Amino acid sequence: MNIVVVVGAGRGLGAVLSKMLVQKGHKVAAGLRTMEGQENSENLVYFPMDVTREQEIKDAAESVKKWMGNVDVIVNVAGVLLPSDRTNTLLTEKLEDVRQQIEVNALGIITVFREFLPIIKEGGLFLAVTSEGGSFANSGALFPAYGVSKTTANKIVQILRTTVEDKVEVAAVHPGRMNTDMGRTTAQIEPEEAAEGFCDLIEGKIKVNYKEQWFIDYLGKTMPL
């Protein structure tokens, strides 16, 4: 059994992954931006975790520590793709919208990692959901601000893993093109399939050499930088 924190568990991959992990016998602290209509169970407890609010993440880490002690795995799924990014270029999109996507998709990783690092067990695992859209090998301009935010997110992950060295394994994970609110127009898989992959990564069924592989997909395959 692993103790897992899933940040961004309100819908899509985060919601599916949280429940799937519990079904597989793990304990989950699920972070939500808004606490509405969620019911706690013995092995699934919800906490407010808006990644744009540093104090809220700090408080959540303290609450999780009190509830379950140190944790084995943290999966940061929290992300946003604004409607304006679907129809604009970087020449026309409001900078406010660009900033919001960078704040959530990239800076949120720093906030979560910084506040939860003290309660991750030695040799634990931190997975940040990023995207193939953050790869320099992806030359497309679809969802431009989102792409900028995910490229930034990947660099943040690279720096964080170097910063903590061998204390915690750190990786950026492309979850596949999922049929969710964010990715429906380009979907290739359902979130359940991606969640199964994440469960296999968490349980060690998919073997990854995190010393060398730090940008992977949900099946553990190395992604192009």
Automatic annotation (TrEMBL):
Single GO term (MF): oxidoreductase activity, acting on the CH-OH group of donors, NAD or NADP as acceptor
SUPFAM superfamilies, sorted: NAD(P)-binding Rossmann-fold domains
Record protein name field: SDR family NAD(P)-dependent oxidoreductase
Source organism of the structure: Clostridium porci
